[in-house]
Amino acid sequence: MAAIRQKIPKALAFCKLEVERKFRSLAVPQLTQHGGTPPFKTLHALPLQTIRDTYYDKTNLLSSAGAWIRRRNGTWEAKIRKGGDFTNSQFEELNEVDDIAACVERITGVTAHEREDFGLVNMADFVTTRETWIADEEFHIVRDNMDFGHEVGEVELQRTVEGRVLSEGEKRDEMRRMDERIGEFMRRYEWAFAEGKPVGKLTAYFAKMGKSSLAG
């Protein structure tokens, strides 16, 4: 009797979009649902996290192109800037090793395996203590304290698209809408966020270590 072979479908298209707005620090000692007016509709605190980040580059080629490659708690990630600026950032996130390798090769011309750190050089290494709250069921409010004495926060929205490939125009349009929603959210709850210009963790790290880099 002939064996019946079942066709295994190819992996579905997958795209993860992330939009964030940084803030200098929280304006309240502890974030609570009713800490200001108007209160958050809902607010859920997530467990405290300890994150070890190691960032990689090659003579600033990646950061100059708006790409950040890191190993977070042992797992490789890439964030590719698709729009915005330092404070209001729009990224596509890559988590598959093959996709990260292709991104590195496209920008640097280097073909290398993850065992070789994709041919990149360690440019920063630090530990972050992260507090996270989910407000109004979807907005992630994050406060990061780094082990070199720096604090910065961000409000994030994420969207995962599966089953079809988004064009670059569709990605930009969707991330623009996400950024507008974050802006409205932060204006509504402005009591929660301190005024002042935020300084990114990599910028603060290099200033602390007396190094120079194009990374933000």
Automatic annotation (TrEMBL):
Q: Which CDD domains match?
A: ThTPase
User: Source species, please?
Assistant: Immersiella caudata
Could you say which residues form the signal peptide?
none
Write down the PANTHER family for this protein, in alphabetical order. THIAMINE-TRIPHOSPHATASE
GO molecular function terms listed in the Swiss-Prot or TrEMBL record: magnesium ion binding; thiamine triphosphate phosphatase activity
Q: Highest taxon of the source? A: Eukaryota
What Gene3D superfamilies has UniProt attached to this entry? Hypothetical Protein Pfu-838710-001 (2.40.320.10)
This chain belongs to the protein called CYTH-like domain-containing protein
Please give a single GO biological process term from the UniProt record: thiamine diphosphate metabolic process
